[in-house]
Design brief:
The complex is a heterodimer.
Chain A: H1 2-9, H2 12-37, H3 41-60, H4 65-86, H5 91-112, H6 119-128, H7 138-157, H8 159-167, H9 169-174, H10 179-201, H11 206-220, H12 224-249, H13 253-276
Helix pairs in contact in A: 2-7, 2-10, 2-11, 2-12, 3-4, 3-5, 3-10, 3-11, 4-5, 4-10, 7-10, 11-12, 11-13, 12-13
Chain B: E1 2-13, E2 16-27, E3 31-35, H1 42-49, E4 55-62, E5 71-74, H2 79-82, H3 88-93, H4 108-120, H5 136-150, E6 154-158, H6 166-181, E7 185-189, H7 193-199, E8 202-207, E9 209-215, H8 216-221, H9 223-229
Parallel strand pairs in B: 3-7, 3-8, 5-6, 6-7
Antiparallel strand pairs in B: 1-2, 1-4, 8-9
Helix pairs in contact in B: 4-5
Classes of the chains: A mainly alpha, B alpha/beta.
Amino acid sequence: MIQTLTYYLSFSFIQYALIAGLLISLCASLLGVTLVLKRYSMIGDGLSHVAFGAMSVAAVCSLAPMAVTLPVTILAAVILLGMSSNGKIKGDAAIAMISVGALAIGYLLMNVFTVSSNVSGDVCTTLFGSTSILTLTKNDIILCSVLAAVVILVFILFYHKIFAVTFDENFANATGTNTKLYNNLIAVVTAVVIVLAMNLVGALLVSALIIFPALTAMRIFKSFKSVILGAAVISVTCTLIGLLIAILYGTPVGSTIVIADIVVFGIFSVIGKIKNR
Amino acid sequence: MALIECKNLTLGYEGKPIVSGLDFKVSEGDYLYIIGENGSGKSTLMKALLGHKCVLGGEIIFDKSLSRKEIGYLPQQTVIQRDFPASVKEIVYSGCLNGCGLKPFYSAAQKKHAKEVMAKLGLTELENRCYRELSGGQQQRVLLARALCATKKLLILDEPVAGLDPVVTRNFYQLIEEINKDGITVIMVSHDMNAATEYASHFLHICHTPSFYGTKHDYLCCDVCRVFNAGGDEK
């Protein structure tokens, strides 16, 4: 088995996939803690559907997928996070509305303006990721790494502000923190992470990458810092395990990673229960 | 010297006034109670003091020595906080954020100040504990410590004893009284008349228009107070 593994690992596209996968899952887990605690768990799901819609538009117009998906998703994220605080349509309803709307538009476009011969195959690939992570080029990896580095840097520089805005927006606002600015920052970063993560696990499974590590870490860890660090480690480990299994046994990348996340969540839940007894 | 002065203030949302004609001054060292029925505009007044955009007319004048960023605020607890994984230390430190500006991390001086505040409120032993595992009274003390890290002058409290048992409530009031005696001005929004008459130095009773503003002694003798205490029976 080790031999097969080293054989596979000698391919550059596999190395690329590993680097991108680990960076993306690290970003997703950092952000996930904030999103879960702010009760925005569903936002990942909603935004990934928007990204799917944007991607089909890009495919139909034969544009570069990133160039369309990224701005559209960022816009949707800012609108959604803004809405949940003071809109007439409440946050969860807005997310549901936008996400199914974008899904319908995306699928319709892909069907009506067929670019390839295998529409259902294309749709399935975009939704569940299948093998797209293994087809990334060197340029994709560079873009991925740069974006991931930016996300991590933003997170470190604004760590205390993000904590304050997550824990108590009223207080932060009252004491002069620009909560609107930081909420928008969180929205933009969320959008970037989701667009990146779509390459790895596909649109439908993006949420898993965001919420599972955070929830898993919260079973055991009790301070914000330890939850964040824990989530990061858990996320990277699960993605690594998932990717290696997928490479070795030819299973779909996205669902294998998510299943690794589920298993670790189960283990941590049990440990948490025992510890708290 | 007046720390905050409100002149003919009208507050409301989307052009609809909720409370109007507010004229009062808060001086350094005061302990002001804002009293009124639900929906009378207490919370709106507090939000206005904290810088929300609900001033429709008149003005709020802050003394030069008081920046709006330096108001310590103890909000009501939110649902999010009840199961939030954060240590006491992390929460208290977050009160120092308004002194950070663009700096990404807390300075050593800020941490030292936060430690002193925690020691004063008896939180030092709890500093690494998880917030959600504390009792209601302890949680409230943590939030008070955070507010004290944010200010050296003015503390605004929003129904701080809601849901606390009588013993804890009493301790909490005594703590506030000590803080007030240390020279920090306190503005408290509350329904608790018993505590109000015991601790407050000034009262503001509002019911869409201010029904009363003055010192404790005058307030206790006036009609507004008697009617409110009797649950509105004497109307």
